[in-house]
Structure formats: C-alpha cells, structure tokens
Amino acid sequence: MAKLVKVSLVDQVCDKIKENITSKQWEAGFKIPSEQELANNFGVNRLTIRMALQKLNTLGIVETKAGEGTFVKKFSFRKYVSEVTELFMKPEMLNDVCEFRKCIEIECVRLAIERATSECILELEKAFDEYERVTNEVKEADNIDIDRLIEADLEFHYQICKASKNSLFVLAFIAARESIYQYLKSINVHRCQIIENEGRSIIEFMQNSTYYHKQIVETIKNADFQKCKKIYLEMIDLATPI
C-alpha cells in the first residue's frame, strides 16, 4: 500500500498564505500580519512562519522590507520564467522553437478565429500598429534595432495566444517567450544576411514583414484559417527569407 506523503508545516503555511493571495483576500501591496500574529492564526511557532515567508520571498510572491514588514508582491509569471529560463536554456533548444510555435501558435490562431472577442481583435490591431510603427522607424533609419523589433513581434503573437481564450496556451507561450526571443533574433539575423547576399534592401524586408503581420490580422478577422495558417508557417520557418 502506498504511503501518504506528509506535508511539512512550512509548506502548509505557504499554501495557506498563497490561498489568501490567490483568493484576492490579500492583494498586491497588502501588508501581511506579523510573524507572531501568523503563528497564532495558523497554530505554529514563529520559526515555521519565518521559514515559510523566506520561501515565499524566494519565489517572488512576497517581499520583506527591513523595518516595515512583509508585503504581497505583484507577481509576474513572465518575469519569473524569463529569469529561470537562463538556467536551463541551451543553444540547441533553439532548433525546437520552430516546432513549438507550429504546434502552439497555429492552434491558437484556429481558436482565436473561433473565440476572439471584439476586444481581442482590438488588442491584436494595437499590437500590429505598434509593430508597424517600429518597422517604419527602422526603415527611416535604414538599420534594424533587432531588440525593439522582436519585442513588438512577440507582443503581436502574444495577443494571438490571448485571443485563443486558452489559459494554458498563454502560459506555454510565456514560458517559452525567452526561447522564442532568442529564436527570432537568430532568424532575423539569418534573413538579413540572405537579403544582403542577394543584394536586396533591408527596407524591402521590413515591408514584407509588415505585410505578413497585416495579413494575419485580416485573415483572423475574416475567419480564414487555411490562409492564415499558410502565412503563419511562412513567417516562422527559419529557411524562409520573407
């Protein structure tokens, strides 16, 4: 017979505090009761409370300020994942990004066509407008600020994931965001090299890129999944110099 795993008092306290936070009983900025008050409320000693708070501090859920107390921190899943990604991400993982995007983002496109609200479409259009603005600035300067371009591009694709109304797909995209960022940096440098070798203008590259993004918006609005899928695959294929 399998034995039940005993949960430590520290983990039990952590769970109770997290429950208060997730239920919005304690919101961001809320000052958590003192160690003694928590010890009395949870029926444990102060050392257990202190260890639980230290664990939550490490996770970025709460923040202890010297002389002030402990406060609920505004938790950013994206920031947290971005920081820990650096610990396990390896160069060879970039080869997996293309497959990941084809599986996750194409499905998000299909779901977005079915489920996107007018507010979702508006946010997607705003993301496209920002992407277009960045590309126009690039064309005027006749050079590419890769980092700004990628941030605008990521926000555009993130809005598509949000429009799918599938919270796990959104979390998956956020978790893979840093890897996708590195992939996009690699693919854009690769494409620029191809363009330069062919004697083409970087401006042409930017115009094509903007056109593809615009077409994705329009095909989602027109509920044309097959056309949108075709455009999407061309954009995320490393071998395609758009």
UniProtKB/TrEMBL annotation:
Keyword annotations: DNA-binding, Transcription, Transcription regulation
Positions of the HTH gntR-type domain: 7-75
InterPro entries (UniProt xref): GntR_C, TF_FadR/GntR_C, Tscrpt_reg_HTH_GntR, WH-like_DNA-bd_sf, WH_DNA-bd_sf
KW Repeat (keyword) present: no
Protein name: HTH-type transcriptional repressor NanR
Source organism per UniProt: Sporomusa acidovorans (strain ATCC 49682 / DSM 3132 / Mol)
